[in-house]
Amino acid sequence: MVKSLLRITDLHIYYDAVKALKGISLDVSRGEIVSVLGANGAGKSTLLRAISGLVPVHDGDILFQENSLKKREAYKIVIDGISHVPEGRHVFATLTVEENLNLGAFNRRSDKKIVLERKERVYDLFPILKNRKKQLAGTLSGGEQQMLAIGRGLMSDPELLLLDEPSLGLAPLLVKQIFKIIKEINEQGVAILLVEQNARKALAVANRAYVLETGRISISGLSSKLKDDKKIQEAYLGGSAIRGKNLSKPGFERIK
Known about the structure:
Strand content: 25-35%
Largest sheet: 7 strands, mixed
CATH class of the largest domain: Alpha Beta
Radius of gyration: 18 Å
Number of domains: 2
Strand order of the largest sheet: 6-7-8-3-9-10-11
CATH superfamily of the largest domain: P-loop containing nucleotide triphosphate hydrolases
CATH topology of the largest domain: Rossmann fold
Number of strands: 11
Mean pLDDT: 88
């Protein structure tokens, strides 16, 4: 049996008295793109923040390459091989594009050759960033800032990339471009856990998907089986719990 790159078991997360995640279990294998779909407030961003060590785990465990991240410091998780591109981009507005990328390579900052090689890889993916490398990040367009945020995440040379709403606020043409690049990154050997409200785009690039509703996974399955199902769209748009005969189709798994 192939071991999962990332394996989450019975994960519970609290914000004070509010239970944000209620027993989440999922896995990501090497070479996969796995999507997590759900409405606002379902717990998607909390899931990524827990993996990155930004929120404490109340119960359950997060294993990366069979090692627990439960009490691992956030910067060490990046060194371990997980990079998180947060919702809202969060580029350093007063630094240049190149300076933002340099910060992403903090785990190898003393090796100038490695940092340069990684920057060239990013510039190959995002040629516009090379043209803008001396420009302040805060003066970039929204799409360019998203490219920079992803590029900065790649500078640590991750084995697993966590992407939180990469298409948020972008024009349709840029959304198409971002998802094309996500696929290219994956083809270069990086596994991706993708949180995204654009269900159609997310399912088009993902191998598998999970639907998250109010802190629980309601359905998981192959993206090829889920992408055309109206019940999935209803759940993604914040509808009621998923019910009905479609759940019995091959490729669907009802989570109890």
